[in-house]
From TrEMBL:
The lineage of its organism: Bacteria, Pseudomonadati, Bacteroidota, Flavobacteriia, Flavobacteriales. Pfam families: FAD_binding_6 (PF00970), Fer2 (PF00111), NAD_binding_1 (PF00175). It comes from Abyssalbus ytuae. Its cofactor is FAD. Signal peptide: none annotated. This is Ferredoxin--NADP reductase. PROSITE patterns: 2FE2S_FER_1, 2FE2S_FER_2, FAD_FR.
Amino acid sequence: MSQFHKLTIKEVKKITPKAVTVLFDVPDTLKDKFQFEAGQYVTVKKEIGGKELRRDYSICSSPLSGQIKVGIKKVEGGTFSVYANDDLKVGDILEVHEPNGRFTFIPNKSISRNIAAFAAGSGITPVISIMKTVLKEEPESNFVLIYGNKTITDSMFHDEILELKLKYPGRLSVYFVYSRTQEENSIFGRIEKSTVNFVIKNKHKNIDFDSFYLCGPEAMIKTVSEALKDTGVSNSKIHFELFTYTSPVENVIPDAVPEGKTKIKVLLDDEETEFIMDKKTRVLDAVLKHNLDAPYSCQGGICSSCIAKLKEGEVKMVKNQILTDGEIEEGFILTCQSHPVTDSVFIDYDDV
């Protein structure tokens, strides 16, 4: 089981009035543990105001760079994002979990592919890592980016994207979409079905895309996914990651969850623990209550930090926006969303 490590901040760079990139100094002794795939994230742990916070931030650097750099956009009413933008400085130390995530791209320099990505706001963070990887490590592949923001000023990595476009002419196509300002050589409005059709069916109508990567708010992902499917794109080609932090849903218990207790066995870090829990309690909450150091972050069903494999018994998930039908059939569950519905269950955190 991977874990948290104390890392020193090497650089904090302001990239928009409300966003920074944070570069971590990873010592040689931890280099292997912090190797990552393009599109993955790290979970950052920090105590602020006497409360432990955990937040996921996608890595915006490419694996070849050897850097762990994340982008953090200030969220109105947020806590850690405000701290990172206003107070975090070089030399500070944060606890950082080893890279995780399933929204990934694995390069193969011997093949030629056409990749397209739709990103909105801070959803560009994992996408730019994927885009750099495609361009650097697959010299025969092409990339199309559709990137939505309110204004140019709000656009994270705007200048870096333009530099990449100049560096890879003919291989990188970029469509900026702005909802509040009309800019030259850009699309006015939001990323909608018409945007998808304009880019995929008009500007690149002769291209057979191998994969689509979508990252941003749920509404955008739903709109783009449906529009792509309407054009004949198979579901297997569409990869997405929600990029909105969701607070835990309180007191929402599916009707299918019965009254009573469950005997739960948990395998974590090669150690088995057994205890009795209430079926109305979520598995992750019960595990943490018994002082087991299970992985977790958002607790809202939009990240994959708390994933485990159900070896015995049955659970009911309140929300699932991450796991595919195939993964569920294999037994994977989000423990932060799972209620046991049988009298005994066996949860394996190690077999993921």
